[in-house]
Amino acid sequence: MKKYLISLIIIFVGISIANAFDKEITPLYKILDNPKSFNKKKLTTIGKIDLQFEHDTLTIIPCWPIAGSKPIAIWIDVSKIDILKKGNPNHINVKVSGIFIEKDKGHFEAYPGTLILDDIEKLSEKDSSLKCKM
Question: How many structural domains comprise the chain?
Answer without folding.
Answer: 1
